[in-house]
Design brief:
By secondary structure, the chain is mostly helical. The chain has twelve helices and two strands; from the N terminus they run αααααααααααββα.
Amino acid sequence: MQVIPSEVSVSRPSNLHWAAYAVEFLGTFLLVFFGLAVVIFDFGRGSPAATWLPDPFVRRLATGFLFGSVGALLALSPIGRISGAHLDPVLSWAFWGAGSLSPLDAACYTVAQFVGGGLAGLLLKPVWGPFGRTALYGATVPSPAGAWPAVFGEVLATFALVGGILWFVGHERLRVFTPALIPPLVACLVAFEAPWSGTSMNPARSFGPALAAHTVGSLWIYVVGPAIGAGLAAVAVARSDRIHVAKLAHHAHDPLGRFHGAATGSPATRLRRGVLALRRTGDRR
């Protein structure tokens, strides 16, 4: 059983935390704006990146690493200290499922993340102009194989990303390394999975460029797939004997006890117990 740091309250207040929501909006804006700048530069038509890295797999690997590095740096910044730097609605939902974030905070984070991602995506259009258009401003679109293979790819990729984060923040000795996990993990997921769906793993990340590139028709893929993947990760990883901290860095800074919570009685734990109970009932029959 892990011990909550002495300076952390476990009252888990349910009131609104406007500063955290504003910071989460800012962090998501920065992730989408600068992260997709990397995507656009690396895959825009005529980019020198294609000359430097002619192999598309290697270019995807580098792009994913740089995108993940943006997220890791934001987590290590004051943004991560104040809001936890989720920067991804399904990660906030997974933290709620694991019992370490209140439903009110998860809902408000979601609104802030979508607004931040949407604003960043709209600004990419005037900043990158016709060159950005050749890369659809970094929009995620399904491969010619169709929507359902893309959904499946998003489920797998998001399960790996969210599951990895939950595993690290659920173990005291691993928590400090959570930001270091993100760049190489995102790099590998983008390199291998992007040909299926573009590897979003983040509805807010897909929402912004979808507005700029007018690809909102496929946006449901990047909500359904990541949501299922994150939910499965929460059910698989959350354990009643762990304190899952809903932050990617600055884990000990939680004066209100908003980010610490044992998975005992959490939605993910209750769901897993229900599935096990059904399995036992079926075995008896």
